[in-house]
Batch of 4 targets.
Target 1
Amino acid sequence: MKAPHVVPYQGSKRKIAEEILKNIPYKIQGRLFEPFSGSAAITLSAAVKNLANEYVVGDKYEPLINLWRKIIDFPDDVAREYKYLWNSQLGDPKQFFAECRSQFNIDNDPVKFLYLVARCVKNAIRFNSQGEFNQSPDNRRLGTNPDRMRKEIFAASDLLCGKVDFRVGDFIDILNDATSNDVVYMDPPWQGTSNKKDPRYAYLLDIELLTRGLEDLNSRNIPYLLSFDGVCGGRSYGNGLPEYLDLMKIDIHAGRSSQATLLGRDDMTIESLYLSPALIELSGYGNIHEYHKLYA
Ligand SMILES: C[S@@+](CC[C@H](N)C(=O)[O-])C[C@H]1O[C@@H](n2cnc3c(N)ncnc32)[C@H](O)[C@@H]1O
C-alpha cells in the first residue's frame, strides 16, 4: 500500500520516506514522534509499514495540526468542506483564492488552509512579518481535485485513527515525555531557507536551540533521526552539526531538485540524515566511535 498524500507541502519527505525509514530496522516498542510534522510524510509511511502502534504528530503551526486532527477524526467533514471551497473557485479562481486567503488570515480555518496549500505557488506556504499567509495562487492549476482529495483523506484517517496524539508547540515541549523506547524523526526548517525575508514556514528554527534540544535528547538516550543540511549541485545549504553530539551522517539521494528539473539541469539533491547515538546502538551499527574509526 502507498502512503496517502493529503497535504501537498513543499519540502515534504514523501518521496524519500522509505529511504529514511530504512534506518529504523526494528518495530518501535513505544511511539514514533514527528515534532516538525508538516505533511506528516514520515508518520504516514511508517504507519503503512506498521513500524509503531502509536504516533505523536506535532508542529508549532496550529492551523496545520488542527487540519491533521480534523482529517483523522472527521474525514467526511474535511472532504466535503474542501470540495465546497474547490467548486466555489470555479467562477473566478484568482478572486476566490484572494478572498479565501483573507478569511483564513482572520479565522485560521484548517480546511481553508488545506485549500490554500493545494492552490498556492509550488505548494510553498509563505507568511509576512505579521504572520499572515501571503503566498499567491498558482494560476495554471486549480489544486488537487476534490474526488482524489477525498480518497487520500479517508486513506490517512483509516491508517491513523485512534493511534495519534496531536500536539501544537515547540519541538522541545512536544518531546517532553519521549523515552528511550520511542523513536523521534525531526525535519526542522533549514538554515539555508531560514534567513530570507519571506520565510518558507510559519516558524523558523534557531540552530543553537536545535543543538540544545539534541543534547537533551542524547542525555535522555532517545533514538532519533534528523534531516538537516543539504547539498544541491555542489552548493551547500546549512552547516554541519557539532561533533560532540556523536551523530552518524548518512547521505540520502533525493533525485533531481524541482528547480534543476525546471532549468533542465542534472543536479542531484543529496540530503543528509543524522542518526543519534541511541539509534545507532539499536540499529546494530554498534558504537559510534568504533564506526568513525572504521570509516574515517
Ligand atoms: C521542513 S518542514 C517539515 C516537513 C515535513 N518533514 C514533511 O514531510 O512535510 C518544518 C516544519 O517545522 C515547523 N516548525 C518550525 N519551527 C518549529 C519548532 N520550533 N517546533 C516545532 N515545529 C516547528 C514548521 O511549521 C514546518 O511545518
Note: The chain has a mean pLDDT of 88.
Target 2
Amino acid sequence: MAAIDLFAPYTLGLLKLRNRFVRSATTSAWADGHGIVGPEIVGRYGELARGEVGLIIKGHLYVDPKGKAHAGMAGASDDAHISGLAQVTGAVHGSGGAIVAQINHGGWEAEAGERMGPSAVETQEWRARAMDAGEIREAVGAFGEAARRCLDAGFDGVQIHAAHGYLMSQFLSRLANRRTDEWGGSLTNRARLLREVYLEIRSYLGDDVPVGVKLNCDDFSEDGFTVEEAAEVAGELARFGADFIEVSGGGFGEQARCRQRARANDPALAEVSFAGHCARIRQATGGTPLALVDGFSNLAAMQAVVQSGLADLVSLSRPLIRERDLVTKLAAGQAEATCTRCDGCHDCFGVAMLRCTLDEPL
Ligand SMILES: Cc1cc2nc3c(=O)[nH]c(=O)nc-3n(C[C@H](O)[C@H](O)[C@H](O)COP(=O)(O)O)c2cc1C
C-alpha cells in the first residue's frame, strides 16, 4: 500500500483540511468572568493556524453556566459570547486554517458551575446532586443552542465532549450513572443523552456541517465504561452520520494511571495511549474518520497509526502547547515534538493552564 502523506490535504465531510494533524481541544483559563474570550486566546489560535495545523479544535466551551467546568473557561451559552468567538474563527480562517468548537457540560466536574450529574455523589471536597428529567432535557437544548451560536461565530463544525469524566461520559458510565429511568441502566439508556444531544445539534446545523464526538474509549475503572461499550456507542454515532470520532480515554480522576494501562504493545506505537482501543472502535465504525489522541510525540508513531488504518487523523494537545508551529517543523524534517521532554507533570492543565512549565515562566 502506498504511503499515506500526513501532510497532504484531507477531506472531512465537506470540509477541506490542509493535512491530517488535529489540535485536540486544549482549554485555557484565560476567558473573562463571563466566559468571553479576549486577545490572548485569539492570538493563540492565530498562532496555531499559522503553524499549519489541519484542524483546530477550540478548547471546551460551556453550553450552560451551570456546566462551567473551571474559572476562566470560555462559553457558548449566550449570544454575548459570539463576537469574541468570531474573532477566534476569523484569526484561524485568515491564516487558511479550519476550526471546530468543542462544546461541553461539566456535570459533576462543573467546579465553576452547579455540580450535578446522572446520580448524586459526594466526595471529601464536594457533593453533586442527581439531575431531574427536566434538567436533562434542558442540557440537551443547551447543546443545540450552543452549537447554533458556534455556527454564527464562524466555526466550521462542532465537537461534543463525551470524554474525560464530564457530563456526557458520566451518563455513559454505569459506575457514575445509577439511574433507573430511561437515562440509566442499559447501554441504550446510558447513551441516550449523547444520542439526543447529537440529534439536537444536527437539527440546528443540518447535515452538511461537520459534527464530531470526542469519546471515552474506556474508564479504566472497575465497573466503568468499557471499550466494548465504547465501540457500540461509536458504531451508533457512525450510523447516525457523525463526521468524526476522536478516541480518548480516562477514568474519574486517574488520568496518569490510565495512560500507563493503555499503552500499545506494538513498539512502533509504544508512546501512544489507546491504540488497541482505537482498533476496536475502528471495527465498529467502518469508514467514519477517526482521530486518535494521547501521547504522540514522534512523527514515526503518527505515521504508523495512520498507515496501519487505526486512525485517519493524528490529534495532539500538549505537543502544540510548547510548539505551536510543530506541524510546520515536522513537515520540514524535525522527527519529534520537543515535548518528548514532557514528563506528564500536567502543570499545563493545572497551575500554568495552557503553558508549559518546562520552558515558560508561570
Ligand atoms: C492544558 C490542557 C487543557 C485541555 N483541555 C481540554 C479540553 O478543553 N477538552 C478536551 O477534550 N481535552 C482537553 N485536554 C486533553 C487533551 O485534549 C488531550 O486529550 C490530552 O492532553 C492527551 O493528548 P496529548 O498527549 O497530545 O497531550 C486538555 C489537556 C491539557 C494539557
Note: The longest strand covers residues 55-62.
Target 3
Amino acid sequence: MEEELKKTASKVRKDIILMSLRAKSAHTGGALSCVEILVSLYFKVMKVFPEDPYNAKRDRLVFSKAHDAKALYAVLCERGFFDRKILEGYEVDGGFLPGHSTRHCAPGVEVSAGSLGHGLPMAAGMAYVGKKDRKSFKVFAVLSDGECDEGSTWEAILFSGHHRLDNLIAIVDYNKLQGFGYIKDILDLEPLKDKWSAFGWEVRDVDGHNIADLIKNLSKVPFKKGKPSVIIAHTIKGFKGVPKHVNQISSQYKPPSEEEAMKVIKNLDRE
Ligand SMILES: Cc1ncc(C[n+]2csc(CCOP(=O)(O)OP(=O)(O)O)c2C)c(N)n1
C-alpha cells in the first residue's frame, strides 16, 4: 500500500511541476512540500466520495495554504474527483482552476482561501458545528508555517482547545521557510509543539514526507478524547533534484525552467 502511495505522490509531484511550467506560476516549492500529507489524507485517512464530492458524511479538508493550490488540485484529480483536462486548465487562459483555490472551483474543493490565517478559523467553525449537531465527520486543516504568524490562527487554536474540538485535526506543513525568508529569522515559532500544547491541543511531530508515519499518526486521531489534534509535519520546500532551489526562497516565486522541470522529473523517475 505504502509503495503504491509513494508512486501516487511521485505522479502528483510531476503534475505540480508541469502545471507550474505550463502556467509559469509561483508557489511551487510549498506545493511540493505538502504532497505526501495530501496523498495520505485523500488516499487513506479521510472518508471521501469522489463520485459524490459533497456527500454530507464526508470528512472536510480546509486547505488553508491556498497559494499552493496546485498540490490540492493534482491530488483531487489523481483521486478521481475530476478529469485531467480540468487540471490542464490551471492558471491558463480559458482554464477553470485559479491560482488560489476557491470554494467549488473544482469538485472536492471545500473553501475559498489564500489570505493566510483564515483556514484554521473556518475549520474550527466547521468542527464546532459538526460537534453541536452530533455529526460524525472530521475536519482536517492543512496550514503553512508562515500562517502561524497570524493572530487569527492563534485565536482559532485557543477557541478549539477551549471547545474541546476533538473532531478537528490540523497539520502544519513546517517547511521552515515563509514568503521572505527562514521562519527562524523572520519570526521564530519555536518551541512550536509546546505552544500548541499550551493551548489545549494534543501534538505529534512527524516527518511530513514519510507516508507510512503520516498514515500511522493520522489514523489515530483524535490523539486524545476531548482535545483537538495537531501534526507538526517536518518538510522540505523546493524542487528536489535542483539543489539551488531546495530549501531556498527562490522556489516560492520562481517557476521551474524547462531544464529544471526535466531534472525534477528525472529525479522522481530514479527514486
Ligand atoms: C495575509 C496574507 N499575507 C500575505 C500573503 C502573500 N503570501 C502568499 S504565500 C506567502 C508566504 C508563503 O509561505 P508559507 O505561508 O510558509 O507557505 P508555504 O511555505 O507552505 O508555501 C505570502 C506571504 C497572503 N497570501 N496572505
Note: The first strand starts at residue 60 and ends at 63.
Target 4
Amino acid sequence: MSPDLSTRYLGFSLRSPLVASASPLTGDLEVLRRLEDLGVGAVVLPSLFEEQIEHEEAELLRLAEVGAHSYGEALDYFPKLQHYNSGPDAYLAKIAEARRALSIPVVASLNGASRGGWVHYARRMEEAGASALELNVYWVPVHPAESGAEVEQRYLDLVSAVRAAVRIPLAVKTACVFSSPAHMALRLEAAGADGLVLFNRLLRPDLDLEKLELVPRLELSESPESRLPLLWIGVLREHVRLTLAATSGVHSASDALKLLLVGADVVMATSSLLRHGPGHARTLLEGLSAWMREREYTSVAQLRGSMSRANCPDPTAYERANYMRTLVNYATPTP
Ligand SMILES: Cc1cc2nc3c(=O)[nH]c(=O)nc-3n(C[C@H](O)[C@H](O)[C@H](O)COP(=O)(O)O)c2cc1C
C-alpha cells in the first residue's frame, strides 16, 4: 500500500508535502499544471517586488499631475504606463489564471522590506484569488546605525501590516540572520504569521577582478544547504504552533525526508526543479514513498517531527556539544 503523503500547511490539507517554491518556473502556467499532475501539494508564484509596485504608483501619480495641466502631454505617458502596469496587474491576472487552472493551493508572493503604501497589494492579491500569501522579507542591514532590535521591528511591522490587510493565510519567508532565530520566530507568530518559510538564501555578490566591480551571482543550491533549515526547524518545532516550510537545498528524497523528520510540514524545491526539470518532483515523491514503505511508515504525519529537538534521543546534538564533537572527531586528511 502507498504511504499517505498528505500534510497540512497554512491551514490547507495538501496531498503531498512537496511545494514548488517561488521561481521563474512557477510563473509559467504550463509548468504549474505539470507540477500539479506530478503530485506537488501547492505552488508559490514568483514574487511581486515592493520596488515594482512603488514604481508603478509613482508613475500613476506623475500621470495624474501631468494630466491636470496638459492632456496632450499626459497621453505621451500611456505607453510607459502600460509598460509599468504590466508588472503588478499582470501578476494579479496570473493569480486568477493559476487558480482557475489548478486545484492545489496557489500561494502569491510579495517581496519587500519596508512598511509602506505598497502593502495594500496584499489585499489585491487576495481579491485576485490567491489561496495564501507568502511575504518574503528580504533586507540587507548595511547601516550600522540600524540596531538589531530595529531590524527585527522592521520585519514585525511589515508582517503586522500585511496581516491587517488580508484574511487569507500568511507565510513569512525570512533569512536566518537574527541573534535568536527561535525568539524571532515566536514574535513573527505573534505578529500574525500562520507559517514560516525557512530560509531565504541571501545573495552574496562576487567581485570581478578584471572590471573591479561587484557582480550579482545567483548559484543554484546544493544539498548541504538544507542543513540550516534542518537545524532551526528541529529546534522550532516544539515552540511554535504555526506551520513550517523548509526551503534551501532540497535536491533528493533524503533531503526532503530529513526535513520532515525534524518537523517541517512541507519541503520546498526550486534549484532541483530548475536543474533537472519539473519531472524531478515525481522522483522526489517516489523516493519519499519508497523510503517510507521500506521503514513501514504509513503516513507523513507519523514521521513528521519524530527527530525534532524535543523528540530525538539526544537533544544536545542540536547544540554546542555537537559542535565540539564535530571538531574533536575531525580526522585530518593525510596529504
Ligand atoms: C532563479 C531563482 C528565482 C527565484 N525567485 C524567487 C522569488 O521571486 N521570490 C522568492 O521568494 N524566492 C525566489 N527564489 C528563491 C527560491 O524560492 C528558494 O527559496 C531558494 O532558491 C532556496 O531553495 P532551493 O535550494 O530549492 O533553490 C528564487 C530562486 C531562484 C534560483
Note: DSSP finds 14 helices and twelve strands in the chain.
